[in-house]
Amino acid sequence: MKLSIDSLDAEGRGVARNPEGKVVFVEGALPGEQVLFDLIRKKNAFEVGRVTQIVQAASSRQVPRCPHFGVCGGCSLQHADSRTQMAAKQRWLEENLTRIGKVQPEMLLPIVYGEDWHYRRRARLGARYVDKKGGALVGFRERRSSYITEMVECHVLPARISALILPLRALVQSLGARARVPQIEVAVGDNQAVLVIRHLDPLSDPDRDLVERFARDHAIQVWLQPGGPESARPFHPPESELYYDLPEFGLRLHFGPTDFTQVNHGVNRILVSRAVRLLEPRPGERIADLYCGLGNFSLPLATRGAEVIGFEGSKDLVERARRNAADNALAVQFEVADLLKEGFKSYGPFEKLLIDPPREGAIEIVKALPADWPRRIVYVSCDPATLARDLPAILAEGFAIRTAALFDLFAFTHRVEAVVSLERAA
Known about the structure:
The protein is 23% helix and 30% strand. The chain is of the alpha/beta class. It has 3 domains: 2-61, CATH 2.40.50.140; 89-115 and 263-424, Vaccinia Virus protein VP39 (Rossmann fold), CATH 3.40.50; 122-242, CATH 2.40.50.1070. Strands 7, 8, 17, 18, 19, 20, 21, 22 and 23 form a 9-stranded mixed β-sheet that branches. A 6-stranded mixed β-sheet has the order 1-5-6-4-3-2, with no helix packed on it. The longest helix has 20 residues, at 82-101. The radius of gyration is 23 Å and the shape is flat.
């Protein structure tokens, strides 16, 4: 069956309607194309397919740079040019706001984007010993599968990390514990890079020697993680630390390789700058930063003279944020709090609020905001759908959406970051 593709959905699939009017999501198709496809899944309300032939290609189609595209689940949009990706992501935000939230910002700002290639500073690579495929594999998981992609390179990872994929496969292959190494996490700072090797059993002395030799030969820092993320410790060299800079604010933030940080440091700098400008911190104002992490927003806000308190559920991240505040000579208060149980309210009132929740959003928090504070909110979201769901609850308290903006930290994927500023009506 031939289909005409109208648009891209929030997962980067082409959207069409079959002759019966049912919506069909077609992987690998772009707007303006006519395609033939194989049916993958059939539901009452929609169908999902995969392109088998491009009958009429769109001018926006480009040859994917990565040889693993289409198999690897790391990217979904390398076949679309940058303009098409940006337009689709902007439309996803607008549709979520109008369709789910039934809200409209006074001003929709242009999308912010960065480098297409080598931008990804964080990654979790799977590792698996597969005898049938000739040994160990290291890479992202295949699309819609738990299998590891048979990768030799990755163009969204920093070039020096991409160049380590084959050597990492050889390392895992050489280990006596190769069947018990399921994951290698990558963390790249402005100063250095770290590989965190997850191992389910203790490594033997010969295995530890092999890992140390790998670290020396490739001038890379290696941590070992025998349990959960909190168990990760430096292995070679025995001491190491990562950091990234926020030059506009004169800040340097240290982080551990398993701490949450944005994958795209370049766009994160712009994101932080925009959020601070939208919140307009002023000397003496009390500002709460919910889900503050290691201080990515709290510390820049404090450089403007505001009295900032950051709240976070992770004790380890709060300790990291406190050290970052001390290292940058800033008087910022950080507290461990269960935000879903309103653990920050006793510290109020606050004139302004920054919310940067996980993908699940912050609906319980925004529903419970006191009526007398704050007067301005900046909401940073990694999921436009949960953002759109949460906004009506804020508007019901007398707020208006002043601006909305999209930040593309994840080129060639369907993921986006959105920022919305809200002001209490006078």
